[in-house]
Amino acid sequence: MRRSGTGNSPGLANAAAKPAGRHGLRLLGLLLGGLCWLPGMVMAGSFYLGVQGGVSIHRNTTFNQGENNETRVIANYRDSGETASVVFGRAGPERGNFRGRVELELGHQSSDVSTMTFDDTDQAAPVEDDSDLDFSDGDSSSDDQEEREEGERFTVTNALGETSATFAFVSAYGDFNLWRRVDGILGLGLGVGEIEFSGHRAGAEGLVMNHKATAIGYHLAIGLGWRVTSFLDLEATYRQRSWEDVRLRAQDGSSSRVRVPSHNMQLGLRLLF
After folding, report:
1. What is the pLDDT of residue 133?
2. CA 101 from centroid of its chain's CA atoms
3. Radius of gyration (C-alpha) of the chain in whole angstroms
4. Which of 30, 45, 48, 270 has its CB 3.0 to 4.6 Å from that of 92, i.e. a possible disulfide?
């Protein structure tokens, strides 16, 4: 498999910079539009401060490397990532069995890389099940690396690295009373984050990605809330969070546009005032 890439030409880099600028303007417009929309929802009610935290499990992410972006690198993550955030919001007045909320959330999430799969097969062909792959601990010699031919797919099991995001979200939630003080929670949010692929290494393959970029993201939430007192709410939620169109550059100069999705199971509390 060829490992050395020529990188992108200055012309291509300039061409990529213009869409990135337009991407940032679209993101700014979305966030400003959301902030203008929120005051109408919070004319009455209670402000609150809260904290949230739990487990974050990143789904596989794929980026390119090699000459002409010929090799796909698929990072698989451990099921032991974490997420934590602080929130400031306002809960609207009760309307029957419904209460609306809007909030600003600032937080961080991260997961460690477990394995990396290097796929140099024809990308138009269907990918076979990983049970047919050549698994390696990544400690093979450089001569062995050079003997690998194009068109193969193998997994390095002792990969290292971390994928993380530091983010801000503007979100809207609905609390639907189910029974006494117990609510069902539905919500969605739009946000912006700094996504970092830090120190992604794969044994003898060496450092393959160490880059970060700013991207727009969204989350969908479902869960249960418990109104313990008039000033304290507890909640347990599941969130599907995804960062879209993350523009990353591999160590050899190859560029990729990556989607970074994750599952997040969180516990939280809100203090109303």
Report:
1. 46
2. 24
3. 22
4. 45
Question: How far from 204 is each of 53, 133, 137, 144, CA to CA, in Å?
Answer: 36, 17, 9, 10
Number of H helices and number of E strands within the chain?
Answer: 2, 12
Contacts 24+ apart (CB under 8 A), 135-143: 136/203, 137/203, 138/202, 138/203, 138/204, 138/205, 139/203, 139/204, 140/203, 140/204, 141/204, 142/204
In the chain, the N- to C-terminal Cα span, in Å, equals 61
What distance in Å separates the CA atoms of residue 18 and residue 248, rounded to the nearest whole number? 15
Q: pLDDT for 25-57, tens place per residue? A: 565 555 555 544 444 444 446 999 999 999 999
CATH C-level class of 10-272: mainly beta
pTM of the predicted model as reported, rounded to 2 decimal places:
0.77
